[in-house]
Model the fold of this input.
Amino acid sequence: MGRTAENLFNVIDYGAAKDGKTKHTAAIADAIRACSDAGGGTVYFPPGDYLTGPICLKSNLTLRVEAGATIRFVRNFEDYPTVQSRWAGREQHGFCPLVYGVDLENVVLTGRGVLDGQGEYWWKLAGRDRDDYPDALKRRHAEFAELNKKVFDIDTHRFGRPPLVHLRNCRNVLLEGLTHRNSPFWNTHLVYCKNVTVKDINLENPPGAPNGDGLDIDSCQFVRVSNLYADVNDDAICIKAGMNEDGRRVGIRSENIAITNCTIQRGHGGVVIGSDTSGGVRNVAVSNCIFMNTDRGVRIKSARGRGGVVEDLRFTNIIMKHVVCPFVINKYYGTDVYSPAEPVTVETPVFRNIHFDNITARDVRSAGFFAGLPERPFEGITLSNIAIEATRELFKDRDSVSDGQYMNEVPAMARNYEPIHGFFCRNVNDVQFTNVRVETREGPAMIFENVGNLDIQGFGAVGPHADTPVITMEDTKGAFVSGCTCPEGTSTFLQVKGSQTSDISIGGNRLGAARKAVEGSGDVPPEAVSGA
Done:
């Protein structure tokens, strides 16, 4: 029934109606079962409006949602059984995802139709106090809590809200052409998958959708993402690898990931790595992308306790506009950026070999925020051929918004940090700026604190500010500054301070427009700076 010579299984032939009012979970499941029993094929949704509970996929199956077809998922948590998967970086139990596949091969979601999670139903539940949950939801929450009680460091405040699309431990996956919108939780979540292609899809979650990430690539390998459009309320494209002890227990990296030709209209970050870094992330290439109206552009985040090695990342040919901060590399996610050093353990994250090239960022608040840990500084960061206009007014009205809202308006979700327009670099080793141009609304273009082996070549500041140095170095150990220029009216090009400052070499610059090329505070050793 419903099968053609091409192994196409039309859901209408299995009893599904396209009126958008009658739930047809069983009919769609029957079509999928018949397709699987036949050895594989295509489950087809012709134009129309379909209402269903969760769709559970099979191997060797193409789910084709035709242009003009919309699959809407029912707004009733009791239709979603309990399943085990990974939520928020931890393996735990929660509601069944809306489109769900586990341990599959050769899975395709394609067409020009729409998957609509009708997430506003779930968002309203998430915004309620637990004491106000319906009794049935309280029972489900208690069920999850019991099932998850052995999970390390469990976070239950989201009560297992389901993602819209969730594929776990699948091989040979293609997501193509569809629009995924209004997800209850993360929009499209890939976990432990290998050989994945994501192309030409649209991800849409409106403002106010809690935890409304676009695409989450979670402990996956060999992933290609291209021509994606995202307009979401959280991280647009996010690469993760498990959270804390549970992430280290699983121990699966995200690696060998290429992202290209993507356009991000809105989100907390254009391309984000972390904060779930415990399994490690490596070999990521991002190119030819546009980020508009994102809180951050490239955002790499972790914190003590999470651990993991994040390395060998490259970001090239990117245009950003109207973002809070184009570059954020932050090991103080939600913590104090000036906290003292702690012992290095397996819980200490490692970031190294991160490269940015050919990037333009206009109408931004802060040029960049790089903050490593004193016990484990960043290693090997390069920026070349970068132009930044940090001319938007800094957000300083902390008292008028919630703490969470304020954290989205400043460069990084780190505490005890006063935002500046320029680059802020703290606890970084082996960092290089080549042919970088920065225009700031006020304040220095670059601030370095406890930085080692710093190389600045061909740097240029745009627009002087009275009584303000262009570059400030504090407790910087080993720096070479060459080929740099400054505009007319510059008071001081380089200000050095701190008793630990040493081996600062200045040479081959054109600084005649500055009143002072170098100015040092009294605690700087006299031999610390040469060649000025």
Summary: The longest strand covers residues 423-440. The CA atoms of residues 81 and 103 lie 18 Å apart.
